[in-house]
Model the fold of this input.
Amino acid sequence: MKAFVVIGAWVLAAFAGLGRLTRFAGTALLRLVQPPWYPAQWLQQMLVIGWLSLPVVGLTAIFTGSALAQQIFIGGSRFNAAATVPAVTVIGVVRELGPVLGGLMVAGRVASAMAAELGTMRVTEQIDALVTLRTDPFRWLVAPRILAAVLVMPFLVLVSNALGVMGGWLLATQRLGFNSAQYLATTARYLEADDVISSLVKAGVFGFFIALMGCYHGYHSGGGAAGVGKATTNAVVSSFILILLANLVITVIVFGS
Amino acid sequence: MSGPRIELAGVAKRFGSRQVLAGVDLAVMPGESMVIIGGSGTGKSVTLKIILGLIAPDAGSILVDGQAVVGLKGAALDAHRARFGMLFQGGALFDSLPVWRNVSFALAGSTDERRAAAIANLALVGLGAEVADLRPSELSGGMQKRVALARAIAARPPIIFFDEPTAGLDPITAAVINDLIRKLTTDLKITAVTITHDMHSVRTVADRVAMLHGGVIIWQGPLASLDGCDNPYVRQFITGSAVGPITVPGAR
Done:
């Protein structure tokens, strides 16, 4: 009987949490379509999320693309399919590794920073101060971050895809003996519009979850430094899980049939 | 205006199992400087936040300039908050903005106009234009309090709340802040509510004093009657004695 009570309490808490999150997201999205807007905040967030994430996303893509090409070459050689390196690399990078690893790297950098910043603003009463100065924190803090992340993530993933493919090309031509022109021609032949579109859709969805988790956990942070630390951890973990889950769902929907 | 500017009746608030406010009754007259004293955790800050509409009370009514506050939403709540300035305990300055943008945050106008207004308000609290472009993290605690004070008065609200204005400051800086609050409330004809533990603040800033204990106002009266008060709770608080009816958890 006690087990049912515990499970029931857990389920109720989970639904209550989901309800709070949905309400939070709904409020933020509503503020995006209602004036007043703060374009300077949007631009600043685009710079912070997009421009400043480029190095980490770019390096991740180059290293992963190179490693992927190496693995495909080794694996493919076992059944005389080493020539598939350019095709499988471009499909693997654009459909999966570019958006997913780009999303995870941005989540690690941005969701944690958002949660820490908003959490600190919460515990130092800066969010209360915003309200007393008649500024809606959702308009000033949350909506610009969500909009910026959704708009900027596709560009980051485009860069990630390009650098991932370039990493594979570099390794294949410099180490594995592939002809450069043939490699690029094969890459272009096997890259389809659906691959790129699904990649960009994933990026936008991942951007939404990254900003939503960072803002939600930071906004509801409490309990001083420990509370801010917990909010930061929760933001990163939950955005990782949501990115991986959303990736699976989008992949099954787009490519499952 | 003849009636109170702020009037609380039976205001109650519970957080979980803890009854923080259990029926606060308080009236603050226009132009009056009311100081609320009381121990830590007695609900002084909660009282201010309830009046501001940052926290919803469980029971009771709040009138500001005769208008009911509880349940206000949207534009009506914004209009209510426009009557207030607030000096938060830690200053609550926005780290990401320079000083002048903090001070002019709620002001309208062009960038030049807002910057000029910020510098004028900084001058009122004894700070020069040279701090305008600094970040809050580059200022001392006392300077941060002054900037927060400049922000609180910048829009010339008719009512200002001061939450522990001297907390964490050395005695001299605290005295400067107290004098500033007294001068500004008098010069700008502001209705002020200050919450503090600091008896120097009370004696400098207050026209009237109220003591919050056990979730209710247990005594209130003019500053002049504070020292002659025979309420044992008030006596213990103003003398800072460890012996008396107020007990601190964990103290022997």
